[in-house]
C-alpha cells in the first residue's frame, strides 16, 4: 500500500467508527457521505453516532487524515475502499439500490492492486453476483485478479461498553486467495482478531446466521412470556433459573419487540434469498417475524388490561413511555417497537408522553409529547411503560413517583417483589405483579 489511503463509503453507525479507527491507526481516510447534512455535520466536528464522541471526531479532523465529503472524486487513488451503505427492505424484498449507487460511483476510481470490501449486511451471493460485475464494468478491471474484492460483516453493537469494533473478532473473506489475504491484512491493521472464511458467500451467511439466531431466540422468549403471563407463571424467574445452566442454554429476555437496522431486517434477507433462489420458505424466520412484529400489540393489550382493572379507559388516560430507542443506551429509533406502541395507544385515544434522553427529538413519533422522566411527570401518568432500560433512567425516581408500571424489561428493583394472584380465571399465585407499601403496582411483560 503506497499511501495508506482508505475510503469509507457511507458515514453512518457502521462507517464512521471504521473511519475513526483507521485514522487512529494511521490511515488517510476519505469518508464519502451523500447526505449533505451529515457530511456538513462531520466537517464541523459534530457527530451523530453515539459511539463516536465529538472530541474523537475533532481529533480525527485535526490530524489532517480524515476528510468527510460528498464528492467521490476525493477518493481517487485509494488503496482500500470499505462500503457501509444501508441495505433496507422495501415491501419485504432487499433494497440494494444504495449499494448499486455506491458501486457505480466507486468503480471508475478502482485501480489495479486496490482492495474493495463490502460491509453492509446482505444475502449470500451479493458480493460476487451484484458488486463484482458493477465494479468490473465501471473500472475495466477483473475483480479477484486485477483488484481485490471481499466481504466482511460488521458486528458493531451500538452502546455496548464491553465489545467494540477493536476487540470483537471480525469475519473476513475474499473472492479468491489473494483477495482474502488483502482483506485480512487490512482488518489486521485495525482490529485485534480476524476470522478468515473460505468464500464471500460464507461470510455473508455468517452475518445473517448471527442475527437470525438472535431474532429467533428473542421470538421464543417473547412467545413464552405471553403464555406464561396467561398461565400465571413468572417467565423472568424461569429465565433466570434456566440461565444458571452452565452449558447448552443461552440467555435471551422478552421485550416489547425488536427494532434497529438489523433484527427486523436481516433475517428477511435470508428468507427472501431462500424463497427467491430455492422456492422454499424459511419457516423459522417467518414465525419469528410474526411473533416479534406483534409484541407491540401485546404490550398495548397489557396496558389496556392494567388500566381496565382500575376502571380506567385507555382513551383519555395519560401514558408515559420510558424509552423510544430500539435498545438501551442508544438513540437509534429506527424500526423501534416504541414507535408502534405509541401509535397504537394514540389511536386508542391515550394521551401519550415519552421520555428518552438519547433519541433525537426530530425523530419523535407522531402524536407523542417529549418530556423528562422527572417526579412530577411520573406521578401525573396513569400508567408508565418501561420500554427501554437506558442507564440514564433512574429506577428509584420511577419506583418512588409512578403509580402503575408495565415493565417490559424487568428493570425495576427487587424490594417491590410482592406478588398477587393472576388473572381471575387462573388461580395461580405467582403472577408478576409487584406492589409496594405506597401503592405502586408493577407488572412485568
Ligand atoms: N447499525 C448497526 O448496528 C449495524 C450493525 C451491523 C451491520 N449493519 C449494516 O451496515 C450497513 C450500514 O448500516 P448503518 O447503520 O451504518 O446505516 P446508516 O444509515 O447509519 O449509514 C449509512 C450511510 O450511508 C450513506 N449513503 C447512502 N448511500 C450512499 C452512497 N451511494 N454513497 C455514500 N454514502 C451513502 C447514508 O447517507 C448514511 O449516512 C447496513 O447494511 C446495515 O444492515 C448495521
At a glance:
The protein contains 14 helices and 17 strands. It has helices at 15-24, 36-43, 54-63, 97-106, 126-139, 177-188, 200-231, 235-242, 266-278, 283-293, 295-308, 337-347, 375-380, 395-401; strands spanning 5-9, 28-32, 66-69, 80-83, 89-90, 93-94, 115-118, 148-151, 170-174, 194-196, 318-322, 351-355, 369-370, 383-386, 404-407, 433-435, 441-444. Its EC number is 1.1.1.-.
Structure explained in plain terms:
One of its GO terms (molecular function) is NAD binding. This is UDP-glucose/GDP-mannose dehydrogenase. Pfam families: UDPG_MGDP_dh (PF00984), UDPG_MGDP_dh_C (PF03720), UDPG_MGDP_dh_N (PF03721). Its EC number is 1.1.1.-. Belongs to the UDP-glucose/GDP-mannose dehydrogenase family. With 445 residues, this protein is an alpha/beta fold. It has two domains: 5-197, Rossmann fold; 215-444, NAD(P)-binding Rossmann-like Domain (Rossmann fold, 3-Layer(aba) Sandwich), CATH 3.40.50.720. Helix content is 37%, strand content 15%. It has helices spanning 15-24, 36-43, 54-63, 97-106, 126-139, 177-188, 200-231, 235-242, 266-278, 283-293, 295-308, 337-347, 375-380, 395-401; strands spanning 5-9, 28-32, 66-69, 80-83, 89-90, 93-94, 115-118, 148-151, 170-174, 194-196, 318-322, 351-355, 369-370, 383-386, 404-407, 433-435, 441-444. The strands form three sheets. The protein has an eight-stranded mixed beta sheet, sandwiched between helices. Helix 7 crosses helix 9 (266-278) and helix 9 (266-278) packs antiparallel against helix 10 (283-293). The longest helix has 32 residues, at 200-231. It starts with a strand and ends with a strand. Residues 415-432 have low confidence and may be disordered. Bound molecules: nicotinamide-adenine-dinucleotide (NAD). Residues 9-15, 32-35, 38, 84-87, 98, 101-102, 105, 120-121, 154, 156, 158, 261-262 line the site of nicotinamide-adenine-dinucleotide.
